[in-house]
Known about the structure:
two-stranded antiparallel sheet, alpha+beta, 48% helix, 10 helices, elongated
Amino acid sequence: MASLRELQHSFAAALRDPAASCAVRPAARLELYRLNASANFRGALALTFPVLLRRVGADYFTQLAHFYRERFPSRSGDLHWAGRDFPDFLAAHLAGGDYAWLADLARLEWARQASAVEAVTAPVGAEVLAAFAPEQLDRLQFTLQPSLRLVDSPFPVFTVWLANQGENAPPADQSVGPECGMTLARPDGVEVARLAPDLFSYLSALAGGATLGDAVTRAALDGPRLTQVLAHSFGEQLVTDVVAAPAC
């Protein structure tokens, strides 16, 4: 007699593959479970990637979901995580074709979902900088909101996503070119916003643990622009803590 664990494994395999043997009977009931599991998986992806669904249509989205589930079946009881590997799957599945840009659109939508499950942490204001001596400023390290996700793409995925928040969105205009931006949890939902390239570079450096001096160098910020970027970082409540790294 099969153990409970063996039954569970064979049942899970049979939900994805009708040819898989399973000790659970009758087969007709297995087919009902199989259809429900497939529909629930596809429904979870549709909720996570609504703009992608709108751009490709329901039939093609269903095909993509089927092929994706074959390679990346859900391994969590929470279907929120079902789409975690979908952008990488699309990058490989659509590579070299006219629809390769959809992988980056999916990355943006997944970033939005990742932001949605993070907490909104109390921010600090620009006045915290006054606590540091001038010689410490280059060594400052900023902690950013845990929900902040930074996304860049050679395609105009932010323009596409924002346009598709209303009805009758126009076709994607690839001539717009590269875009970068962020997703961020707010008390009333998740913000999706384009960012200027230098601001994006600055925030990316800080998010990676760089000091303020290194972030300014990487983003090539002059004095006036640094003032604007700092005002944006604190004004948009992106910063939750500031510390000075030890002097070398």
